Protein 1
Amino acid sequence: MKRSRMTVFFLGKVQGVGFRYTTKTVATGFEITGVVKNLPDGRVELVVEGQKQELDEFLQGIRDSEVGRFIKSEQIVWGEAKNEFRGFEIVR
């Protein structure tokens, strides 16, 4: 099946609340690869690749987690997978 790439910018109080760690924990339940990192402007960027349904369910898993309440809004960009990730990791 075709793999997609989803880039999500999370806005809200998403830094300093364990957002990246929780996202990595949620990722262990899905067949996805990618990275999550803090941005200097206070947002968190998530770049993940996998099958579209898996990516949708992963994003919902983040929303349903304990850090979901800190998300004020999301900007989502879809594209084709570039297959550049091995596993899922936090970028510091």
Protein 2
Amino acid sequence: MVRRGEQGAIEDSRLDRLRRLVAHAYERVPFYRERLQLAGVRPGDIRAIDDIALLPITDKRDLADRPPGEITASGLDPARLVATMTSGYSGEPFVIRRTRREQTRWARSWLPDLLAAGLRSGDRVASVFAVREERTDGVGLLETLGLVSETVVDCAEDSPEIIRQLAKARPDFLRGMAGVLEHLANSMAEAERPICPRVVWVSGEVLTPVARRRIEAAFAAPVHNAYGTHEIGLLASDCRDSGLMHVSSPGSIVEILTPDNRHAEEGETGEVVVTALDFFAAPFIRYRLKDLATRGAAACPCGARFPTIAHIDGRSIDYFEMPDGRYLHPYRILGPALAAAPWIRQYQLVQESRDRIVLRLVREGPLDESERRRLRSTVDSLLGPDVRFRVEAVPRIAATPGGKSRPIVSLVE
């Protein structure tokens, strides 16, 4: 439990780090200097944590549209930084750049929650995520910390193959995307050898109450839910006592903003906006995640003096059912397509029926036929002759009535 005096010291530290970050961005990062000048804000204007509201909000597209040198601190060569290409839960692919020290700090941001969930030194860990996002220099995220042996399983594999690899790994601690593990739970009856981890730790997608029950029943283990991003790291995680999520990461400031840009009150839903306090190479200051969340109590009823989130409403991924009965994770389609077309600014993958899938994409300029054919060729063998895959260039991807984009949509019952 965090005592009041400790909480005050944490807040003072966060203010000092925020002021240092803003001063650094103003002096050394052209993108943020321009944004702050346009907003009429100087680093000295940040005198309290609440003054963060003076800073302009940044969208992923604002950063992605700029050359790397404009969003990276002067004196650093973007080509020499650790670069991670996200698959884009928001439908907007993006390259994250950090120094090696910052990359290690990002990995370590998850560690306190993993330990709280039950991770032990020497555990066999299996992680079911998108492989290119989960691996650093070919090594799994947790293995980089030197505590455990880790098997990384590509979440885009077919369920029988994932189950086979998990059964071989015999994990004590299982990590994965909530939707993928729920899908596995529905297939577990077909597995020849059961997978019996001590704990199942989920992140990356919305965990519904039904999904939690199914995963716990299939793996005979408690589920611990964490919320974080590739850009920032851990943001919030399960409280076992209250059922809420603690917003407890010391390395970030998390805001939940209503449509009129005020901070949400308890029970109100708004957009998640995050500032990473420890990343200076390519900062994220008031960065809009395009996730929706509902604000919980200002201090958790368990006694910990952390603000809380009642539930996360964003980032749920649908599986696609094929005419031959297979279920494909959308990353099986998106991974090759995004790799073949780094010029894609925004996308939406829609399964209109079991035999029709469309990739809608936004790009500058027209889409010529050779590009269209190249994109189709990346998935032809995967989908097979019974599925029609078409590529459409569109001027924009429409948001839902709530303002959130849906990059992956299945219209199949």
